[in-house]
Amino acid sequence: MRKKIDISILVDQYISRFPAEIQERLLMIRAIIRQAAPEAEETFAYQMPTYRLGDNLVHFAGYNNHIGFYPTPSGIAAYAKELSSYRWAKGSIQFPHNKPLPTDLIRQIVEHRVAENSRGGTQKGKQISLTDKAVEKATGKGWDEWFSILYQEEADKLQHKEIALLLSKKFGVDGWWAQSITVEYERHLGKRQVGQAKSGTFQTAVSKTMPGSLDQVFNLWLEAVKDTEEFNSIPLAEKPAISKTEKWRYWRANLKDGSKITITVGLKSEDKSMLTFSNEKLKDQDAIEPWKAFWKDYLKKL
User: Fold this and answer.
1) What distance in Å separates the CA atoms of residue 291 and residue 99, rounded to the nearest whole number?
2) Same structural domain, 219 and 256
3) Over the Cα atoms of the chain, what is R_g?
4) 87 and which of 35, 94, 127, 242 could share a cystine (Cβ 3.0–4.6 Å)?
5) Is the pLDDT of residue 146 over 50?
6) Cα separation, 67 vs 22, whole angstroms
7) pTM: predicted TM-score of the whole model, two decimal places
8) Contact 291, 280 (CB under 8 A)
């Protein structure tokens, strides 16, 4: 039986290919996206880290002289004035390595894309992030037509990859739209819910801006959990792993129920840092709200 690949490891491996200074910039963008879009699914597509929320949200990629950031044309159009000092095209932005990353602007763009993807109508009670008009314009068919076709093809018996391949090979739908139609079809069937990753597990995150430097906030966390052996009544499976870069601090732990916790501290300004609690590999959607409540209560104690 083929072993499932942990997508976060693929993204880690991708980032590790670059020199240390570029790795740090890529990690910074990754953390901003996770903070601004905690419900987004992290995946790997088009040979780069990719984030989906119903459909495509943003991508990013590393290059020798710049970071490529891809928030779709609408994300760029909404901030054209703020992006005037950068090289950009219809769907891409270049952030050169010889300039500081515009972290607040990146966060605003991601939040804008989250708002866009969260709007839209419903199809039989399931959220449709892309409008029927947009799908029809791009593919020649609306949602009802595509869902009818997929029913006729008995796509409800197929896996995600098989559905996307069917749309691409038999019906000539290009890669991005094939993936988007597949995701919405799975939502339509009730196979995929908000916060659900492609693996079938769920993820969530809670963030808060706190006063203090990176180390002050990170050490506050380390002191709070130094004797902790369980979180939300779930024991640790092993000793937590701690790692640091110049601008980021990480604390990672696996729990005995198979889920994973990642604590990230990123510098937001000279005297403020962003603390983010992330859960991955949750077994069902019902686990999301209890974890959110747990972390919000934890933040009050900190």
Assistant:
1) 38
2) yes
3) 20
4) 94
5) yes
6) 8
7) 0.46
8) no
Count of structural domains within the chain: 3
Alpha carbon separation from 136 to 119, 126, 146 (Å, rounded): 18, 19, 10
Give Cβ neighbours of residue 154 (< 8 Å, ≥ 6 apart): none
Give the integer Cα–Cα distance in Å for 161 and 187: 15
Residue 101 has pLDDT above 70, yes or no: yes
Distances (CA, A) of 272 to 161, 208, 216, 266: 43, 10, 10, 9
Arithmetic mean of pLDDT, 45-58: 85
Structure tokens at 28: 């910074």
The model's pLDDT over 54-72, given as tens digits with 9 standing for 90+, comes to: 778 999 999 999 999 999 8
Domain that holds residue 49: 7-118
Q: Which of 118, 145, 175 is the last residue of a domain?
A: 118
Task: Of 97-106, 126-135, 142-151, give the range with the top mean pLDDT.
Answer: 97-106
